[in-house]
Amino acid sequence: MRVILVVFFFLASSMSLAGKDLMQIEISGQIEGVVEIELLSDLAPNHVNQIKKLIINKQYDGVAFHRVIEGFMAQTGDVMFGNISNNEYSPTMVGRGGSQLKDLIAEFSSQPFDRGIVGMARSQDPNSANSQFFIMLKEGHFLNGNYTVFGKVISGMDIVDSIKKGDKSNNGMISKNPDFMKRVLIFSKN
What we know:
Layout: H1 2-16, E1 20-28, E2 33-39, H2 45-56, E3 63-69, E4 73-76, E5 117-120, E6 133-136, E7 149-155, H3 157-161, E8 180-189
Antiparallel strand pairs: 1-2, 1-8, 2-7, 3-4, 3-8, 4-6, 5-6, 5-7
């Protein structure tokens, strides 16, 4: 009976992800591991498409987690100033850049910012999201309806929890040796 229940649970879990796009992040640095994120194209189709373009073009490979606040979130995705594997990395500019793609119009939803939710970072302008994103370490419902949700972590949250934390006195910025996205892949779960 136990085996049947385990098989049923596995099949039910697999069926619920059928036809979904998954983002796989291989994290490196002081922590090593893989994080899988289900992309929520039903909530934010334009944001998901932009993220997929950046992944396919390998823009996220080597990009640092430049701002990580204990008990709040881990931010990454600055492809302009955040790539630690090339000469473009700038510890003083990281977090201010985006990509060569256009900024996006906000796609706010009713999805709450719970632990493991992935949202797009932006400036004061709600329509300024581009390539940077953050993963919630804890719920942050004060963000609800103000930032675009485009994904949720489905495995590897323990890895996200272990990402190097930033300087509390500097809004969570990491000035030296940040953890980074070594490789980011996109695949469909059929």
